[in-house]
Amino acid sequence: MTARAPFNVFDEIQTLTATCQPFAVATVVRTVAVTAAKAGAKAVIRSDGAISGGWIGGGCARAAVLKAARECLQDGKPRLISVQPADALQEKGVSAGTAKDGVVFARNMCPSQGTMDIFVEPVLPRPELLIFGSSPVAVALADLAMRLGYLIAVAGALADQKKFAAVDSAMPVGDVSKLTATERYCVVATQGSGDEAALAAALSVPARHVAFVGSRRKADALRRSLLTKGVDADRLADVCCPAGKDIGAVTPEEIALSILAEIVELRRRGQRAATEAPRR
After folding, report:
1. What confidence tens digit (pLDDT) does each residue in 68-83 have?
2. SS3 108
3. Which domain holds residue 41?
């Protein structure tokens, strides 16, 4: 009988990252007095709240860490949790659940009555940019977005996909429903080649943003046509056209830049701290 290899936190992190699954990593960064886990101990927490492996101690810290993991996977922000006995919390003038100076305090209910500081960090899949078409704008968009860390999915005629230098996945327009990204942005850059089918497919998958590269007149005509075919009116109204921010773009590369600027603005909105000093 072959012995099972010991669990390795870093192997688990690599596996979850490779399969585009969101998870959190909890790391014990400091302990005071007697605690079950020591500084450096780690655990991996899946999006369903289960600890898939690792060790951060017993019930003393578990509830607080799992709560922090759920919250950080929702908002994408890490947390520092300090689990302390009741008398230590009282000395600091805080109660369980209080957040102060970037630390969230929790009460240690275990007999050990030690203190543990645990850093909980979300690890979220890369956002996906789903591009319809193989126009010059589509090709420029794929190239630039890959440099910014997006997963690139291209939907269109298989014969045209050789125009792209590198993509993460490529498929016919009808196969986009098989994609599984949790954060997606769609850009229809067919520019006269199968516009209606591509826009309908873009609206058939969950996405934070759907943009159409073309004139308002063309987009309005497509909306009217798709509306008669049963496409949801609210989703049609949300289609952004013309795609991108108004930066006076002319070339395909400049148009791609304007589209990505719009997506980055949408994606990062609200992530910067409200107290951050304004730039001068």
Report:
1. 999 998 888 899 999 8
2. coil
3. 9-123
